[in-house]
Design brief:
Layout: H1 10-21, E1 28-32, H2 39-51, H3 64-70, E2 77-80, H4 88-99, E3 108-112, H5 120-131, E4 137-143, H6 151-154, E5 158-161, H7 167-178, H8 187-190, H9 195-203, H10 205-216, H11 223-229, H12 231-235, H13 240-255, H14 262-276, H15 281-297
Parallel strand pairs: 1-4, 1-5, 2-3, 3-4
Helix pairs in contact: 1-2, 4-5, 10-13, 13-14, 14-15
The chain binds zinc ion.
């Protein structure tokens, strides 16, 4: 209740509650922060509070609004939540609905998740609503990249920034909500405060295990062994930055005992940059593995 079931971003819990308590709700908000840190959960919970019919509590769980909301059947609540680009037709559709007065509550709440995937046309179309919203409307745009929004949209929204989750918060969420525990301990750092990244790491547990095995035992393997065992790296271009982060943590860990491993970290950093700047991917991986193997072997 009142955000207690959401972990992390404590300051925003207070901020959002105080907006309602002081009746300072405006028409449009922008929830900004990296993916997988709870922005959508916050928006949903807040929407429920905004729509609740009880004046004394933010979220009574007893009124018609709260009950309909919990059964995913609230006529004054509308969500666009998809991974693909949000197109102008969807915004037009939303605008038609916005004109209808609320049915249960005295407000209507619209959440647009991944709003930073809106096309320019979609943004321009939405702008009309942001410029002249019906008095009962609250729109929450959620996105990772604020700069993708048109200035005209940004200037009309109240921005709420979300921080990546702290390590202990992330561990707690993984354990309590997903029954997942990442090993070794420092693997959690690779997730950089994002549940989404942590879950993708958990799914690729075997990959991270083989990476750990190879890099912790490079001196036992021939170069050919290393290349064979790490074929997965060549096939995981889309996750390579995370995997390289992990390799870096392995060496940071080793460097605490032997400083000679510090040079490996430089090599890994170089590879990360080269991959971003689109150098030949396979060649970059070849070179990195060779570098790491070579310095270990001699
Ligand atoms: Zn209620």
């Amino acid at each position: 209740m009142e955000f207690t079931d959401i972990i992390g971003n404590e300051k925003n819990k207070e901020l959002l509650k105080s907006i309602l308590k002081q009746q300072k709700l405006s028409h449009s908000y922008m929830f900004i922060g990296k993916e997988g840190i709870g922005k959508f959960l916050f928006a949903n919970k807040w929407a429920k509070m905004i729509l609740c019919q009880t004046k004394e509590e933010l979220e009574c769980n007893k009124c018609k609004s709260c009950i309909q909301f919990d059964s995913n059947n609230h006529p004054d609540f509308y969500v666009i939540n998809q991974d693909e680009t949000i197109k102008i037709e969807q915004i037009r559709n939303l605008q038609t609905k916005i004109l209808e007065k609320p049915i249960i509550s005295n407000k209507k709440v619209y959440i647009i998740n991944n709003a930073d995937t809106m096309t320019k046309e979609a943004q321009n179309c939405l702008l009309k609503t942001l410029e002249e919203p019906p008095e009962y409307v609250v729109i929450i745009l959620i996105g990772a990249n604020e700069n993708i929004f048109l200035n005209t949209i940004r200037s009309r929204c109240t921005k709420i920034s979300f921080e990546p989750l702290k390590e202990n918060e992330l561990i707690k969420i993984l354990k309590e909500k997903f029954d997942i525990y990442l090993e070794p301990e420092y693997l959690i750092k690779v997730a950089q405060g994002s549940v989404k990244t942590a879950l993708s790491i958990a799914q690729k547990k075997d990959l991270y295990k083989s990476v750990q095995d190879v890099f912790e035992n490079t001196d036992k393997y021939t170069l050919l062994d290393v290349l064979n065992k790490l074929q997965v790296l060549y096939k995981n271009k889309e996750n390579i930055q995370e995997i390289l982060d992990y390799i870096e943590y392995i060496f940071l860990n080793k460097a605490q005992k032997e400083t000679k491993y510090l040079s490996k970290i430089e090599e890994i950093e170089k590879t990360k940059k080269n991959i971003i700047s689109n150098s030949n991917y396979d060649m970059q991986i070849d070179y990195l593995l060779f570098k790491i193997w070579e310095e270990n072997a001699f």
